[in-house]
Amino acid sequence: MAVDVDVVRVFTRGEIGGNHLGIVADGVDRSTEQMQAIAIEVGYSETIFLADDATVRIFTPFDELPFAGHPLVGAAWWLAHHGRRVRELRPPIGPIRCGTIGDRGWIEAPLDQRVRPFSGRWPGWLPDPVRSCIVEMPIPYVIWQVASPADVAAIEPEPGDEWIYVVADAGATTRARFFVGREFEDPATGSAAVALARARSHWGEESGEVRVLQGEEIGHPSTMHLAWRELRCRVAGTVHPEPSRTV
Question: How far is CA 12 from the centre of its chain?
Fold first, then answer.
C-alpha cells in the first residue's frame, strides 16, 4: 500500500541545510514492523508517525527511538501549519512540551537525566577532551568537549559503538558534531542538544543560552537555539517544507 510522507527540513540555516524529516500523519493504525519498513523506505535519519491524540513514534532506518529532538520540533511546526496547534507531543519517553513561533518550532524537555563519568579508553580519532561525561537520554550519549571549533572540524571519525556529541565553545556559539555509532554522522541533533544542556547544568552552569552550529562537514549546515534554566531546556530552530513523497 502506498504511503504519503510529508517532508520538512529541521534546524535549517536560513534557506539551506537542516535535517530531513519524514512525517506520516494519515491516521492509519500500523504495526511496529510496518512503521520500521516505511522508515527504511523513506531513508532519512528519522521518520515520525503522528496519531490524532499527539502520540508519536519515531524510527530511524535501523530502529525505534524513545526520544529525538528534530522529529519533535518538526512535528510541532508541521501540526501548527496544518491548523493543529498542540501544547505537547507524546513520544515513548513521556510528554514533551512544544510549540511554534513564526518559522521556528521548539520543544521543552526536563533536565533530569542521569549523568555519569566517561570511563575507559576513548576512540583514537577523538581529540583529548577538556571535559566529558555520559548522559542517559536514555540511550547513552557521550558529551565530549574539546578545546576549539577547529578541533571539532578536523575530526575524521572511524566506526564505533558510541553515540558521541563533540562540542567546542566560541563565545555564544557552540560548534558540534554527532557521531551515531556505526551508522552515520547526523546533521542536526536536538536530543544531543538536550544532553549538552544537561551536561553543562551538571558541570555547574545552572542556566545558559547558546547557538549550536552543526552539519557543515557533511554538507547540511544547521543551527539550533539552546537555552536552559531551572532544570529545563528549550531547543528551537527554523523548519522549511519540502515536496511530499509517496513510498
Answer: 13
DSSP state of 217: G
Which DSSP letter does residue 188 get?
-
pLDDT in tens, 197-209: 999 999 999 999 9
Q: What is the CA radius of gyration of the chain?
A: 17
The DSSP letter of residue 90 is B
Name the grid cell of 207: 542556566
Which of 6, 62, 55 lies closest to 30 in space, CA to CA? 55
Question: What is this structure's pTM?
Answer: 0.96
- Map out the domains of the chain as residue ranges: 4-105, 115-235
Half-sphere CA count of 205, side-chain side, radius 13 A: 12
- To the question of domain 115-235 being in CATH 3.20.20.70, the answer is no
- Same CATH fold, 115-235 and 4-105? yes
β strands within 159-231, DSSP E: 163-170, 173-180, 184-186, 208-214, 222-229
Tell me the per-residue pLDDT of 202-232, one tens digit each, with 9 for 90 and over: 999 999 999 999 999 999 999 999 999 999 9
Residue 67's closest CA among 138, 18, 129, 3? 138
76-118 pLDDT tens trace: 999 999 999 899 999 999 999 999 998 999 999 999 999 999 9
